[in-house]
Amino acid sequence: MRAFRLPTELWTLAALLALWEAVVVVFRVPEILVPSVRVVFDEIASNPDFYLVQSMHTLSNTLAAFVLSVVFGVGMAIAIVSSRFLEKTLYTVLVALNNVPKVALAPLFVIWLGTGNASKIAMGVMISIFAIVIDAVLGLRSLTPDMIDLGRSMRGSGLKMLLKLRLPNALPSIIAGMKVAMSLSLVGAIVGEFVAAQNGLGFVILSAQGMFRTDRVFAAILLLAAIGTTLYYLMEVLERALIPWHESQRHGTARAPAAVVPKA
């Protein structure tokens, strides 16, 4: 019978938590600066319903922003690749917006969309969509001339070439952009909650900071780390399911995302 073995990632996380606990205990770090792991877990265990509700609120905004960024990002990439005019205009606008610090735009989203979920989702889309566009454009343009000639020789229309050749060929690049965009969507949701919110883990951090509740701040940060890590590995599962034929999967190594990380 094969012995059960914990994944290396879990051992790594456990080691980091043990190191955190050891440093706080050995060096007697004041709890108001850095609480111990035990104190942080006690805080979460004492208010499980509260942290679950706040986590689900942030998670829902993150997933909504991610889905919208994928839909609009891939759509924009197809438009950019298909039109020289859009490449010179839309692509330029996206690059310009990407270089604007997103925190500076957050108050405008609150004015335009209110303090509800819409402004948080919009902030998540604004931060994450560029990663999708840049990787999708790269993938759609990477089709070899031989494959293009083959498609044309078989009388493939523009739509068929897109669906049968360009999109499957671009899938590894698109998924690489999605892995980056998932993390950036979470960042965007938190930025939106920092600016104006009545719930969510970003709001928990901001309100706890005002009360010098360091344990609550670290509890929210720990939950954010757990959410972000889980979403990232779910994207890896999706990657293995969609592109098992790709070289990165055959060699058991993840493909490095080619996207330029937007400025928060």
UniProtKB/TrEMBL annotation:
<comment type="similarity">
    <text>Belongs to the binding-protein-dependent transport system permease family.</text>
</comment>
<keyword id="KW-1003">Cell membrane</keyword>
<keyword id="KW-0812">Transmembrane</keyword>
<dbReference type="InterPro" id="IPR000515">
    <property type="entry name" value="MetI-like"/>
</dbReference>
<protein>
    <submittedName>
        <fullName>ABC transporter permease</fullName>
    </submittedName>
</protein>
<feature type="transmembrane region" description="Helical">
    <location>
        <begin position="217"/>
        <end position="235"/>
    </location>
</feature>
<keyword id="KW-0472">Membrane</keyword>
<dbReference type="GO" id="GO:0055085">
    <property type="term" value="P:transmembrane transport"/>
</dbReference>
<keyword id="KW-1133">Transmembrane helix</keyword>
<dbReference type="InterPro" id="IPR035906">
    <property type="entry name" value="MetI-like_sf"/>
</dbReference>
<dbReference type="GO" id="GO:0005886">
    <property type="term" value="C:plasma membrane"/>
</dbReference>
<feature type="transmembrane region" description="Helical">
    <location>
        <begin position="121"/>
        <end position="140"/>
    </location>
</feature>
<feature type="transmembrane region" description="Helical">
    <location>
        <begin position="63"/>
        <end position="81"/>
    </location>
</feature>
<feature type="transmembrane region" description="Helical">
    <location>
        <begin position="184"/>
        <end position="205"/>
    </location>
</feature>
<feature type="transmembrane region" description="Helical">
    <location>
        <begin position="93"/>
        <end position="115"/>
    </location>
</feature>
<feature type="domain" description="ABC transmembrane type-1">
    <location>
        <begin position="55"/>
        <end position="235"/>
    </location>
</feature>
<keyword id="KW-0813">Transport</keyword>
<dbReference type="Pfam" id="PF00528">
    <property type="entry name" value="BPD_transp_1"/>
</dbReference>
